[in-house]
Design brief:
626 residues; 19-stranded antiparallel β-sheet; alpha+beta; 40% helix
């Protein structure tokens, strides 16, 4: 298999997807672009309704982690300078993508930015999808001449000249993405019906020109995504917003394994010069096609998109969902049994939280049930028969022996309400903890048994009895750092708590009232003010150190040039070079500090859970308006 060709294809797909991602967050697809998307696309990202640039302007500005426009421009300049001075012999297509990305960043970070600069309108009709093996980005243009100027400027930076590609009499520009004359791959750019289309020209790797014609819209798919009802179903079933959603087609992807005539299988066979067909022959029998594709049908797709997007308030809310959809009721019924208890600490804001709800009593029965189902299924597909034979050699009963001591455990959590540091004292390299408030909990049906289990992991706890319900005691544990307050141990209903600080202690009042019931699997939250504060202490110390070095350099008497070094050794830097290096380090520290300050106020809360219809992964983001 030719690694160079594969690397080129991966790079092209990643960069193309990244370019689409940037544009996707400025708008979404309408039915216009959807009529060009095949219903059997392997991947789709777009929407049923458009969103304007102005609606997302606040989100774009608040999410600009690069900090100031000046730092963004410097990043762009460094990117271009690195490429211009490089000796990597980068293909023209990659250079064009780098140049387009640089110009795109420069445009959208400008104070007077207008989408017209890119040839786009206020409402964006766009979609990213696949036609056979080709990734395609389709984008409605409002001003083709403006886009032509934008593209020409990017190409002229590296003096790039496109080749002309032709399919069914339609001409498009193409730029090489590799240097393989036998199996060339090109970045293909064309305009038709008022749309910009960016895809790949796979040259000799392509089975034919039919997919190129579909990609550029010279012909329409037999069934389009617009008429399939798939997106409407996703919105109804998952509460997704119609302006930004997508999915990954598992049933289509599995055919790379089971069907030699699937578009990606044909491409893989070309790239590997026939070796993939040989290695996958065992999976392409009628029995394997039926059984493996049947299993894929139980997990037909992964869907993703926004469930809420509100930029009208003082803070921007952007809530999203990624879901692995399942129609396998038997499996989901079992997995839902693993859900455990997650405590509710919403009464007090937190800087960081992690909660794991896990019903240890159900772990062995669930694993045994899933194992029995897998080992007792009737398979004719030889690779599946072999996997089944290996599974039959395992004994899930051993799991019960290992988890028996954890009987009754329903979950654990950590919640940090407050943490601030101050610079290290003289003679120490570690900063001191100035303020701290946190609570760690262990929830279960038998708290005393849980405490005995924890004592086995930490023998120093063995001599400390568990307090009476509703009470707490100081926990005499030697700690590697000095804390501003004592760590306490308390029992509150079915929950053991280790905590310190007034804010944490206030939370224990409600803990004992919380019923021990299954309400989730994993939940995590972080306020990036915590990250900014912790890194800020280290950055300030480093900045002070560099400032001191510059002051000492300025006060030092003029020195002669350093003496010559032995042959083969790098010469010592001159005083001027040392000063320049220190100033550069100081500038980088200040830039990092600026970026960290830009994170303040951003919060992300995420969770993973099992539902009757699949595995849900949600993320709720809150951003302050800048």
């Amino acid at each position: 298999m030719k690694k160079g060709v594969i690397a080129t294809l991966v790079a092209a797909a990643v960069i193309g997807g990244g370019a689409y991602y940037a544009l996707q967050h400025k708008g979404a697809a309408q039915s216009g672009s959807l009529s060009y998307v095949p219903a059997d696309t392997l991947l789709f990202a777009g929407g049923l309704e458009p969103m304007s640039w102005s609606q997302l302007a606040a989100f774009r500005d608040s999410f600009a982690f690069s900090g100031s426009p000046e730092s963004t421009r410097k990043m762009i300049e460094d990117l271009l300078k690195s490429e211009a001075e490089g000796k990597s012999n980068t293909p023209a297509g990659m250079q064009l993508l780098i140049s387009l990305y640089a110009d795109y960043l420069a445009a959208v970070t400008a104070k007077d930015f207008s989408p017209a600069v890119l040839g786009l309108g206020e409402q964006i009709d766009s979609a990213f999808y696949t036609v056979g093996a080709l990734p395609v980005m389709r984008l409605k243009l409002q001003d083709e001449a403006a886009f032509d100027a934008f593209l020409a400027k990017a190409a002229s930076r590296f003096k790039l000249q496109p080749q002309t590609g032709t399919v069914d009499g339609f001409n498009y520009q193409r730029y090489a993405l590799n240097h393989d004359e036998k199996q060339p791959v090109f970045l293909a750019i064309g305009k038709r019906d008022g749309f910009l289309v960016i895809t790949l020209d796979l040259g000799t790797l392509a089975a034919g020109k039919q997919d190129m014609a579909l990609a550029f819209g010279l012909s329409k798919p037999a069934q389009s995504l617009a008429s399939s009802g798939v997106l409407e179903g996703m919105i109804k079933e998952n509460g997704l917003q119609p302006f930004s959603l997508g999915y990954l087609n598992h049933e289509g992807l599995i055919k790379i394994l089971t069907r030699a005539d699937s578009p990606l299988a044909l491409l893989l066979d070309k790239v590997s010069e026939g070796k993939s067909s040989q290695s996958l022959a065992a999976y392409r029998t009628p029995a394997c096609q039926s059984e493996i594709e049947g299993m894929a049908a139980l997990w037909p797709r992964s869907v993703f998109g926004y469930t809420e997007f509100d930029g009208s308030g003082s803070a921007i809310r952007a809530n999203s969902l990624f879901k692995m959809v399942s129609t396998d009721k038997a499996s989901m019924d079992q997995l839902q049994k693993l859900r455990g208890f997650l405590p509710d600490f919403s009464a007090a804001p937190n800087l960081f939280s992690y909660q794991l709800g896990f019903n240890m009593d159900e772990l062995t029965p669930v694993v045994t049930s899933l194992w029995s189902r897998a080992t007792q299924a009737k398979f004719s597909c030889q690779p599946l028969v072999e996997v089944q034979a290996k599974l039959q050699q395992l004994n899930p009963g051993l799991l019960g022996a290992m988890t028996g001591m954890m009987q009754g455990v329903q979950g654990a959590s950590l919640n940090l309400q407050e943490l601030s540091l101050k610079p290290a004292v003289s003679g120490s390299t570690m900063p001191e903890i100035e303020k701290l408030s946190f609570i760690a909990t262990f929830s279960g049906k038998q708290p005393q048994q849980m405490w005995s289990m924890l004592a086995m992991a930490q023998p120093q706890l063995a001599a400390t009895p568990l307090p009476a319900d509703g009470k707490s005691i100081e926990l005499p544990l030697p700690l590697p750092v000095t804390l501003p307050g004592k760590v306490k141990l308390g029992l509150f209903g079915n929950h053991i708590a280790l905590f310190t600080g007034d804010k944490a202690e206030a939370l224990t009042a409600s803990l004992g009232k919380q019923e021990l019931k299954a309400n989730g699997f994993v939940r995590m939250g972080i306020d990036y003010t915590l990250v900014a504060d912790l890194l800020g202490v280290a950055l300030k110390e480093k900045e002070a150190e560099l400032q001191k070095q510059l002051t000492e350099m300025a006060a030092a008497p003029a020195q002669q040039e350093p003496a010559a070094t032995e042959e083969g050794m790098a010469p010592e830097p001159t005083p001027a070079e040392r000063k320049a290096q220190t100033e550069q380090q100081l500038a980088e520290i200040k830039s990092t500090g600026e970026m960290m300050n830009h994170l303040r106020g951003m919060r992300i809360d995420s969770n993973m859970d099992f539902s009757a219809t699949g595995i849900d992964m949600k993320a709720n983001m809150t951003l302050p308006k800048r």
